[in-house]
Design a protein that fits this description.
The complex is a heterodimer of chains A (127) and B (351). Chain A has 127 residues and is of the alpha+beta class. Chain A folds into two domains: 32 residues; 80 residues, Sandwich (mini-chromosome maintenance (MCM) complex, domain 2), CATH 2.60.320.10. In chain A, 28% of the residues lie in helices and 36% in strands. Chain A contains two helices and eight strands. Chain A has a four-stranded antiparallel β-sheet with strand order 2-1-7-6, with no helix packed on it. By secondary structure, chain B is of the alpha+beta class. Chain B has a domain of 132 residues: ApbE-like domains (T-fold), CATH 3.10.520. Chain B has nine helices and 19 strands. Chain B has a nine-stranded mixed β-sheet with strand order 1-2-6-7-10-15-16-17-19. Chain B is globular and about 95 Å long. Classes of the chains: A alpha+beta (127), B alpha+beta (351).
């Protein structure tokens, strides 16, 4: 009888621990990544995990109206320079969380951060 | 003893399979919901639009909505020469026959021009142009240039009879402050016609929702930080409603240390300085919310409150220059301010 309870408890504990480990791993993977998706004319052209960067990276995207210079840093991203006159995308500044994307209309460029999986996710942003 | 051991093993096996069932069950549900949602991004009406309808028919609904948006853009765009609005502007005072959509939108818009006592004015377009907000070639115009253009700014000189529009010679109109809101209403209609009961769209930062989320909960819509930070003022929960914000941060330039934004007060011909830096309207009609977000931004807190008491039918949230928040009572329990805004002065306006 004692032996039986021992096995029941052991198997239950092992099962519970593995389940917890799975959940924790899943949670960690989501919490650690800050994924920036860069779209041009609706097509995904690049995906960067901002939290995997160790130093700033600068690159240029060319669209119908000219160039956008994008700076990705550990944890955040922005458009640092644009050829267009209105500079709306540059004025939008840095992004490090989900929500309102950086948009350059003339070049049909959209930079969007995937929302992190927190307890109360946001479905949309007005602005 | 043997019997006990066997049942213990059975129990353990049962526990294990239950655990796996839970894990797999969760995964499948999330995947199914994801499969039933269609995400479509389109560039139209000088902005980027995200359509996210849910349901079996969501792919077809998104296609139909995109077509409808492009159809409306061809009618409303001030820069497409063949559009209804461009033809009205080019008519030099003669009457012009327009589409049912243009007439319907004009009628709604003119109603709000009237109700807001001209805080919203569709004929402000020439002033907006001279500031360079339509092209990005920004400049601070001379005061006498503004005054001469203001002489032709008067929504009361826009005549709509049935589907015929006539404006005074020298006037130009633009539906930029209301077109996206009306388009949102039309997209909801397309979703409904396709049998959908759930969906969300963002038309360049104008959010409109159909029903609730598929799980029955409200949509959580965040309001962008008007001071340019990447945080949010707060989150408002809605179902089957539009949430539309006007903010000075959307399009602006600086000259000699002064910030000039694109929301022009028809009374002065200059960027509106009412103390408001962000005005959000929550209501059933996208066209109404769009019109009133611009109007309440221009009106300022006192006139906005009087307007809301007089007409109602919507809720509003204003962010003022000093960081304080004012919102109408209908948002109580639905709006949650976030830090640092939640530490600032918050006033709830009641009837």
């Amino acid at each position: 009888m004692k032996k039986t309870s021992f096995w029941v408890i052991l198997i239950a504990v092992v099962a519970l621990l593995s389940a917890l480990a799975l959940v924790w791993q899943h949670h960690q993977a989501k919490a650690d990544a800050v994924i920036a998706n860069i779209y041009q004319d609706g097509e995904l052209i690049r995906t960067i995990d901002l939290n995997k960067l160790t130093e700033p990276e600068t690159f240029t995207v060319t669209g119908p109206a000219g160039e956008n210079e994008i700076v990705a840093e550990p944890g955040r991203i922005c458009v640092s320079h644009a050829d267009c006159p209105d500079q709306v995308c540059v004025n939008m500044g840095w992004r490090s969380e989900g929500g309102f994307p950086i948009v350059c209309l003339p070049n049909k460029l959209v930079i969007e951060i995937e929302s992190s999986a927190d307890a109360n996710p946001i479905d949309g942003v007005v602005g | 003893m043997h019997l006990h051991r066997a049942s213990a093993l059975r129990l353990a096996a049962l526990l294990l399979s239950l655990l796996f069932l839970c894990a797999c069950g969760n995964g499948t549900t999330a995947q199914e919901t994801a499969e039933q949602r269609t995400d479509k991004t389109i560039f139209a009406m000088d902005t980027v639009m995200d359509l996210s309808p849910y349901g079996e028919n969501s792919a077809a609904a998104a296609e139909a909505a995109a077509e409808r948006i492009q159809q409306l853009e061809k009618l409303f765009s001030v820069t497409i020469e063949t559009s209804d609005i461009a033809r009205v502007n080019a008519a030099k005072g003669s009457p012009v026959e327009v589409s049912d959509d243009t007439a319907a939108l004009l009628q709604t818009a003119l109603e709000y021009c009237e109700k807001t006592d001209g805080a919203l004015d569709l004929s402000i377009y020439p002033v907006l142009k001279t500031w360079g907000f339509t092209t990005g070639e920004y400049q601070v115009p001379d005061e006498d240039v503004i005054q001469s253009l203001l002489a032709n700014v008067d929504y009361q000189k826009i005549q709509l009879t049935g589907d015929t529009v006539q404006i005074a010679e020298g006037m130009e109109i633009d539906l930029g402050s209301v077109a996206k809101g009306y388009t949102g209403d039309q997209v909801m209609e397309v979703f409904r016609e396709n049998g959908l009961t759930s969906g969300m769209i963002s038309l360049g930062g104008n959010v409109q929702t159909l029903g609730t989320k598929p799980d029955g909960s409200n949509w959580r819509i965040a309001i962008q930080d008007p001071e340019g930070g990447e945080g949010y003022v707060g989150v408002v929960e809605v179902a089957d409603q539009a949430v539309i914000t006007s903010g000075g941060y959307e399009r602006f330039f600086e000259e000699d240390g002064v910030t000039y934004w694109h929301i022009i007060d028809p009374a002065t011909g200059a960027p509106a300085r009412s103390g408001v830096i962000s005005a959000t309207i929550v209501g059933d009609s996208g066209a109404m919310c769009d019109a009133l977000s611009t109007a309440l931004f221009i009106m300022g807190p006192e006139r906005a409150e009087t307007f809301w008491r007089t007409y109602g039918g919507f809720d509003y949230l204003l962010v003022l220059e000093d960081g304080s928040l004012i919102y109408s009572e209908g948002l109580q329990g639905r709006f949650t301010p976030m830090e640092p805004w939640s530490n600032n002065s918050i006033t709830v306006v009641s009837k």
